[in-house]
Design brief:
This protein is mainly alpha-helical and 839 residues long. Among the domains are: 463-537 and 577-603, no CATH class; 673-838. The protein contains 38 helices and 2 strands. Strands 1-2 form a two-stranded antiparallel ribbon. Helix 20 (476-494) runs parallel beside helix 23 and helix 22 runs antiparallel to helix 23 (523-537).
Length: 839
């Protein structure tokens, strides 16, 4: 392995091999045919995965031989990402050194890139200068990249451009930067890169138009999970084409037709519908600016009018909101002021969010010149380390000289140049102030003085300090101090200023990606508490970011489980649900002392005054405790009554008056989760699921991991249950969650893994538990009759054990019986409605 690593080291290996084997394709020469066959075999070895797979097997064998070689020793050749990065650098070396007229060399280079796509690390093959280092881009680089792409097949060009678009979106246009003052400039930068690669030199005629339009047409294409910035960049790039008016008119017509389809409104995931509306409004803004205005014809069409009406008739609040926004915004462009549609009082969203959607038609991104690549605003300069000195570098304390003439309680401080012995009068013993005893330091017991670490790491005071401690992966003390104080510091700083919100993404990245390389005690719990603190304090920032990383990014199974667990625990805390002391989750809550530390100092009295004025436990507290017990007693009595086998006639029943019941009823608390559950957690999680399923071949994809899928379903279950039956967004959550559960009921991963099937059953049971009121059950019968019948049929097979799933235990039957019972209650009560709907 070491020899192979030395042979392949460097970025000139492939270029050197090609230089020695250069041939002319299609010449008919026997020698050229031999060289061409040798080159194909070489490409299959290097870029086809043979070298990588054999090296990976060798690494596994070496790592298992602990007694022979050093444990954990791996070669870069057997690591997929590093090997693909080496392949990329060799390809770039050939691209930069090849003559632009050498067709055979370009075909050879393109063949390596095309085979490399099959390794599974597509992002590592894209030229990093295009998305990480724009200042290095030149006209010559773009010209050579265009030549390289021209020798790829159409679907291979699609892979390259789609991957590049995702990388541009992730690195320059993430959601948390949308309010940044340079965001529009970032959109222009991405648009300029797309123009240079896809628009110039009649690029749209080479198949690039279809690739770009996939991102702004039906379903949002391969980038439906990406933020709006990349779609703005694509539209800005397409504006540079001479055929832009025709392209946007056809795109707008296609978007309006999709917008008006009733099946699309009822069954398309919300994330896809949002992308459709975003692109519709962006294209409408451009079409409206082109005379004669084609937008008036579209606004009067039956597809548009039916689309707005169908959206307004939907029971899904988000769908209604999208319909109102489209109808109102298009009306402002084509109608006079007295005839414009206005939904201001009935919009199911905040004024700020509605204003952002309305402003989409006014966005007019300008194509910049080539100098934008030299703009220093895009240089990602990491924050400088704070200039404070460490504790060990502080100035040594001066020697304290004690004299007999000193007054009691005072000392005179002076620098003593030499050692001096001074005789003290015994009468001045009372004035003597002894040195305090040093703190006990277990580390000082080390025999070797050179190994004693006397540097005390102070607790972080600012979020930037916390970040530096978290990212120091070589110091156990720094990471320990950071994790111990992370949760408290985040909660204390979250509501004061923008310190936490400005670094929220960096904190999540550092926390989720931390490795327990020191086998730290309580590492997982401390990290999880910090992640929960971010999700609780900043749900609208942390929630979408975490949901995206669960399905994307280079994270391990354990790290994805941490993110899902964090969302579930944060949902319980935001809903106000108290965790009992006997629960395993109890230790993940902040202790009483930690909760006190989360209070900002300016909002709390000094300890002496706080103890004086703080409310003490009074008789009212005792009465409230008794009331709580009296509420619990009837519940326990009812359970005992149901379990009792005695005849009903001899049972004693106690009736309460209405006033007693009202007095004992628990006051409803404020459920903060219901206010943010859709945009922060549930919407991103379900939206990313449908994007993942679409990109990777449905619910039967081999990329799905049973344990992670089970935890994902349980997280959605917790979100639904914590939101409660009275949340305004519950109908929308039930519809979205039910669609996911039904899509999994016959999937291979569900039938072969009992954990996934049990999670689906628990989720189904939670749906009926949340919809236990008559109005909710009636809504299920009226609007989700098909799903209701399908669920009943499927659960009946699970209960009977005839669904072909793994296992057939009593607990499984109990879950299935509970779901079946609740489902039949709805079906039997609203049978007439169901029959009428089915007929």
């Amino acid at each position: 392995m070491d020899v192979l690593g030395l042979v392949l080291r460097g970025n000139g290996v492939l270029g050197t091999f090609w230089g020695k084997l250069k041939f002319t394709s299609g010449s008919g020469n026997a020698e050229d045919r031999k060289k061409e066959m040798a080159w194909k075999e070489f490409v299959g070895l290097v870029a086809g995965g043979k070298v990588l797979s054999v090296a990976a097997e060798a690494d596994i064998a070496i790592s298992e031989a602990d007694e022979v070689v050093e444990k954990g020793r791996y070669s870069w050749i057997g690591e997929g990402k590093q090997y693909t990065a080496w392949l990329r650098e060799n390809i770039l070396n050939m691209v930069d050194g090849t003559d632009v007229n050498d067709t055979d060399a370009w075909k050879a280079t393109a063949s390596i890139l095309a085979r490399g796509f099959g390794l599974g690390y597509t992002e590592s093959l894209i030229d990093t200068r295009l998305y990480l280092n724009p200042s290095a881009l030149t006209k010559d680089i773009f010209n050579r990249t265009r030549i390289l792409l021209s020798h790829l097949k159409e679907h291979e060009r699609g892979i390259y451009i789609n991957t590049l678009l995702k990388l541009l979106s992730q690195n320059h246009l993430p959601v948390h930067l949308e309010d940044n003052e340079n965001y529009t400039k970032r959109v222009s930068l991405a648009a300029k890169i797309l123009e240079e690669l896809c628009i110039l030199n009649d690029g749209l005629q080479n198949g690039y138009q279809d690739i770009l339009l996939e991102w702004i047409l039906v379903n949002g294409g391969p980038g439906s999970g990406e933020p709006i910035g990349i779609r703005r960049a694509i539209i800005c790039a397409l504006k540079a084409s001479t055929e832009a008016p025709t392209i946007f008119q056809e795109a707008l017509e296609s978007q309006v037709q999709t917008f008006g389809e009733n099946l699309w409104i009822r069954h398309a995931p919300i994330i896809h519908q949002e992308v459709n509306v975003q692109c519709l409004l962006l294209c409408a803004g451009y079409v409206h600016s082109q005379p004669p205005s084609y937008l008036k014809i579209i606004a009067r069409s039956s597809s548009f009018m039916n689309g707005v009406s169908n959206h307004l008739a939907s029971t899904n609040t988000r769908v209604r909101f999208l319909g109102m926004i489209v109808g109102e915004t298009i009306s402002t462009l084509v109608d006079k002021s007295e005839r414009q549609l206005k939904f201001k009082d009935s919009l199911d969203a905040s004024d700020e969010e509605a204003a952002k959607w309305r402003a989409l038609v006014n966005i007019d991104d300008i194509m910049p010149n080539f100098d934008i690549f030299k703009d220093k605003a895009f240089e990602d300069s990491p924050p400088k380390k704070p200039s404070k000195k460490p504790v060990s570098s502080a100035k040594k304390p001066d020697i304290i000289e004690i004299s007999s003439s000193s007054t009691p309680g005072t000392t005179s401080i002076s620098n003593v140049p030499s050692t001096r012995i001074q005789e003290l009068d015994s009468s001045s013993d009372d004035d003597f102030i002894p040195y305090p005893k040093p703190d006990s330091d277990p580390e000082d017991s080390d025999d070797d003085a050179t190994l004693v670490n006397r540097k005390k790491i102070p607790p972080p005071v600012y979020i930037r300090d916390l970040l530096y401690l978290l990212t120091d992966h070589d110091s156990f003390d720094k990471q320990k101090v950071a994790l111990l104080h992370a949760a408290v510091l985040i909660r204390r700083k979250a509501t004061y200023g923008t310190e936490v919100s400005a670094h929220a993404v960096d904190l999540l990245t550092a926390l989720v990606g931390m490795q327990d390389k020191f086998s730290m005690e309580d590492f997982d719990n401390l990290r999880l508490k910090a992640v929960v603190s971010l999700l609780v304090t900043l749900p609208l920032i942390s929630g979408p970011w975490t949901s995206q990383r669960i399905f994307e990014g280079d994270y391990s199974l354990a790290e994805r489980c941490v993110m899902l667990s964090g969302i579930g625990i944060a949902a319980m805390e935001l809903s106000g649900e108290e965790i009992p002391e006997d629960s395993p989750l109890y230790h993940l809550q902040l202790s009483t002392s930690e909760k006190e530390k989360t209070q900002f100092p300016s909002k709390k009295l000094p300890k002496r005054l706080h103890d004086t004025y703080a409310p003490l436990d009074t008789a009212i507290d005792t009465i409230s405790t008794r009331l709580k017990d009296s509420i619990l007693q009837p519940i326990a009595a009812k359970a005992a009554d149901e379990l009792s086998t005695a005849p009903s006639l001899i049972k004693i029943r106690k009736f309460s008056t209405r006033m007693e019941v009202e007095a004992n009823r628990k006051k409803p608390g404020v459920n903060k989760l219901s206010q943010v559950v859709i945009p922060a957690f549930f919407g991103p999680l379900t939206g990313r699921w449908w994007v993942f399923v679409k990109d990777h071949g449905g619910a039967g994809s081999d990329r799905l991991i049973p344990h992670l899928l089970s935890l994902y379903i349980k997280t959605l279950t917790v979100l639904l249950h914590a939101t409660g039956p009275n949340g305004l967004m519950v109908p929308q959550m039930v519809d979205g969650f039910w669609d996911i559960l039904l899509s999994l009921r016959h999937a291979k991963i569900t039938l072969e893994n009992s954990t996934v099937l049990d999670a689906v059953l628990i989720g189904s049971l939670t749906i009926f538990e949340v919809c236990k009121e008559d109005r909710d059950r009636k809504r299920l019968a009226e609007e989700r009759s098909k799903e209701l019948v399908e669920t009943q049929e499927w659960v009946s097979k699970v209960f009977e054990g005839s669904d072909g799933s793994e296992g057939n235990g009593e607990e499984r039957k109990g879950l299935a019986a509970a779901v079946l019972l609740r489902c039949r209650e709805v079906v039997e009560r609203y049978e007439r409605i169901l029959m009428g709907d089915l007929i």
